[in-house]
Write a structure and sequence with these properties.
Number of domains of chain A: 1
CATH superfamily of chain A: Alba-like domain
Shape of chain A: elongated
Largest interface: A-B, 32 and 33 residues
CATH architecture of chain A: 2-Layer Sandwich
Strand content of chain A: 25-35%
Helix content of chain A: 25-40%
Largest sheet of chain A: 4 strands, mixed
CATH class of chain A: Alpha Beta
Oligomer: homodimer
């Protein structure tokens, strides 16, 4: 699914796409998932962590958050600095059964401010 | 400057405005500053932390990051969930002298992806 195991790269898709990826990884037996994002996707990464924890896996906890700066090559030449984040989520338990019945519990989703 | 001491609320202004606020607080003798942001401003908060650390105060470190979800009242009625972040920066030293001469060291700024 991605180049690094147990890593979800957050991009421009809706947060729920990545929430599903996180749940898939954790449901397959992994105890840990790392979300990686840069630039505007940083907000989406925080949304994914919060939605997964609050709606689907209350046993999930944030075990590590690392901030960073990456140098991106520009098409016009030169480089540009962009902020990045890595959020590591750790669980000791399996996804709640309710994860399969979210339609019945329409909790509000974090959206953009 | 804000309701809570040593706290900078990150909004829609350019990151450098908030970097200046952080440096002002740390220069007045405080050892700790907390950045608070929600929604899209989360990305700006990470930019502020990274720019302050890399360009102005290399002794600065991220001592704590807390993710959360806040319920916002909507004008139309009801509430909406929005993700939030609190980044605590801690220093043991005063701002570098170079902070006054940034024009001479035009390091690239994190910008939006």
């Amino acid at each position: 699914m991605s180049r690094e195991p147990n890593t979800v790269f957050i991009g421009r898709k809706p947060a729920m796409n990545y929430v599903l990826a996180v749940i898939t990884i954790l449901s397959s037996g992994s105890k840990e998932v790392t979300l990686k994002a840069r630039g505007r996707a940083i907000t989406t990464a925080v949304d994914v962590a919060e939605i997964t924890k609050r709606r689907f896996m209350e046993s999930l906890s944030v075990s590590k958050i690392q901030l960073g700066t990456e140098q991106l090559e520009m098409q016009e030449g030169g480089t540009r600095a962009v902020s990045s984040i890595e959020i590591t989520l750790t669980t000791e338990a399996r996804p709640k059964e309710e994860a399969k019945a979210t339609q019945e519990v329409p909790a509000p989703l974090p959206t953009e401010a």
